[in-house]
Amino acid sequence: MNAFSRPDTTPFAAFVDQSSIQPDAIEAQRVRAKIEPCTHGTWLVSSIDLRNPEGDLLTRAVFDKIEAARQVGNPRKRRQPESGKLRQERLVRAILANGLACRFHRDPPLVAYRRTSGFYGKEPRWLSARALARTVDQMASLGLLYTRRGKWGDASSTYSLSHSLLELSEQVGVVLHSLTSKLPSERLIRLREANAGGPEITFEHNPETESWAKQLAAYNAFVARHNLAIEPSEIELAGWVKKVNDSRNEGKPKLVKPELFKTDLYRMFNNASFTQGGRLYGGWWIGAPKHVRAKITIDGRPTVEADYSGCAIRMLYHEKGIDYRDDPYAIAPLVAYAEENGLAPEHFREGVKRLMQALINGDEGGAPELARIEGFTFKPFLRRDVRAMIEQAHPHIADAFGGGSGLRLQRADSDLALTIISNLMEKGILALPIHDSFLVAKENKDQLIFEMNNSYFNKFCFNPVIN
Predict the structure, then answer these.
(1) Distance, CA of 260 to CA of 179 (rounded, Å)
(2) Within 10 A of 363 (CB to CB), how many other CB atoms are there?
(3) pLDDT tops 50 at residue 29
(4) I need a labelling partner for 203 at 20 to 30 A (CA). Which of 4, 115, 175, 323 fits?
(5) Are 200 and 191 in contact (CB under 8 A)?
(6) Structural contact between residues 42 and 112, judged by C-beta atoms closer than 8 angstroms
(7) β 266-270/189-191 pair status
(8) Which of 186, 181, 185 lies closest to 264, judged by CA?
(9) Is 300 exposed, middle or buried (0-12, 13-18, 19+ CB in 10 A)?
(10) Would you call the peptide bond into 380 cis, given omega within 30 degrees of 0 as the criterion?
(11) What residues does each domain of the chain span?
């Protein structure tokens, strides 16, 4: 279970304040929504589902309406075979779950889908473009969906839930907490053709990828048995949502509230190689700001977060057999300037951290020191001068700056993360990974730190620095 502390039973109607709207205006809103929807929507995915019993009740109610409509005017019409009925029921359920998820979490609350064949080749067999288009059209003809056909090269087809379907959802007990998400086994390991944002490519599993998928499937089932909750203030919630929306492409649907029903993890590799990347994604807590994560509870218990300090930098030193224990981001000339000018000694620290990440991730030809770093400045210093200071402070690993080591190191830290959460799971302890940091219930802090130290030492033969 995963939710904010209070709105678990909030009905969908609560998100549309009808009290001050006249009936004629309500009807006008419905008509406009039906004939003038936004051309952008959130893509339908097969992993979003509804909890039972309300999921079964809503699916059955809608499917019965579809079946009844098929028989109208032609009572002798041959009924669907049982296998076909089961596939369409599953499709109806996905249409409903995606529509409800967008209703709660996206603006505009539109689901985008494809009507042309071939688009859903990697999805389960019950999800095909032809069957999806037919079922959406059937539900629209019954007044359950508002739809708009897409235009090639312009916009996708979209649908949204009608007022009558929202009322039916509320009648059968659907609430915010009814949403859930479960990734199929074939989506637990993913491989991109290039770096972030590139298309995914197909691959043949090997014993290693199969082992990762098995570990993640076990972890995802484990986290689903726990109650994750968070109660941020209105200001914190608004800041969290803004952070997500600022990273979205212009024109894409905006997030209205965090999607706390998404807890399944997957590994994403890059550059068509399982040696590049591999970090864990998918869990809603990964994108939450650190000060907001501090309010997460696990089964009602407060949590604590521990992280590997300067993880990538320290890994580079340890690969060279050097036991580096200092703060890698405390660059002496910058600290001295800050203190001389009445600034905090750590004034430049976060900017240095971001710049060093850019240096590790980038290649020399791309001038990585010029990478965009929002919210930080090195004035009065130039970026190239700061890079020179960093290289002078870290001469033993300076050859890694601009060398594109970042994704290789991400493979190492993601291996650590998977090992740590799996080992703790075997002890009955849930750990929530955020790349190189982890959240556990406070009483499990010592066991988390033990696993972090032990797993790191087994890999690098040096002890890490843990905050």
Answers:
(1) 9
(2) 11
(3) no
(4) 115
(5) yes
(6) yes
(7) parallel
(8) 181
(9) exposed
(10) yes
(11) 1-180, 329-393
